[in-house]
Amino acid sequence: MLAQSSPVTTDVDFDRQGRQIGTITLPLPGLAEPVITPIAVFSNGPGQTVLLTGAVHGDEYDGPVTLSNLVRSLDLNAIEGRLIIVPFLNQLALQAAQRVSPLDRLDLNRSFPGDPNGTPSQVLAHWVATRLVPLADVVIDSHTGGTMTSWIPLVMMHPVPDPTQYDRMLGLIRAMRPPLGIVLNETDKPGMFDTFVEQQGKVFVCCEWGGGTMTRPTLDVAGVCLRNGLRYLGMLGGEAENPVWPAFPQPRLMQAPDLEWAVAAPRGGIYEPIVELGADVEEGQTLGYVHPIDDLTLPPAPIAAPVSGTLFFRPASARVEAGRRLAMIARDL
């Protein structure tokens, strides 16, 4: 896509060799003071460019902490090429501790390719799309379930049609050694950071490091997997590590290619799960119940597994609305 003029600026020089710690400035004329976001760039000779991002959603914390630790610990001499790290990409949402920007209520991860003349989220998405993505060969985006969902720590990719691109993405997931690697068909791909990068023919993997509460086990898994990815991409020395996740003692590669492998709430209420994440289930098995909150004469609605496989996703909050996705099932790839 052609780069249009953006009001966003940065004080780092992406063509300069060495280690740079700088800032990205997102102006907010007429709304508030400009938003200042840290950025790190490590350049050491020829090679590919890898972009690591975190806090695309502002209520997801394992990624930002892990990426911040990486910035402080990386050895420039071990890097072959260029590494760009933006741990706190959606600074407005992060400061508000919520998924979306409080100024425009837009989801940054549904705002690509953005608009340089739009709202703050659209302006930021446009700058990422026209300034960072063209530089990158590989993008690794760190998420968690935030306040909305709970996941087994995983690294996922979309089933892209290009076989070479598909193999490169799957190879990166294998090298990262997450407890769960998954090829996932998502319903709302338009506007996603993932989809935009994939459309450029580049490698994109999305990490979901657990739920909204940062824990020592999820942080440890995030650190191991991101370091493994950087080793595979020539950005870090040392031997590959194995993450510790008791439910998955060995990394598993799975798929959820059909939207019928997910189940939604038939009505609003309180969801009572009875099957833990990571459990193997049979088609038709009861996963939980939705309890109505407005009628004591109605029994709880049972939620059945749509297919046999492994439960890898459920809502983080027990309070659910009709249509809310309650479970997703995966099978070995």
CATH architecture of the largest domain: 3-Layer(aba) Sandwich
> Percent of residues in beta strands?
25-35%
Number of domains: 2
The CATH superfamily of the largest domain appears as Zn peptidases
CATH topology of the largest domain: Aminopeptidase
Please estimate the helix content.
Answer: 10-25%
- Spatial shape: globular
Element pattern in H and E: EEEEHEHHEEEHEHEHEEEEEEEEE
CATH class bucket of the largest domain = Alpha Beta
Q: Work out the helix count.
A: 6
- Mean of all residue-level pLDDT scores: 95
Task: Describe the fold and architecture.
The chain is of the alpha+beta class. The chain has 2 domains: 9-256, Aminopeptidase (3-Layer(aba) Sandwich); 259-332, OB fold (Dihydrolipoamide Acetyltransferase, E2P) (Beta Barrel). It is 20% helix and 30% strand. It is built from 6 helices and 19 strands. It has a 15-stranded mixed β-sheet that branches. Strands 16-15-13-18 form a 4-stranded antiparallel β-sheet, with no helix packed on it. The chain is globular, with a radius of gyration of 20 Å. The chain starts with 8 loop residues before the first strand and ends with a strand.
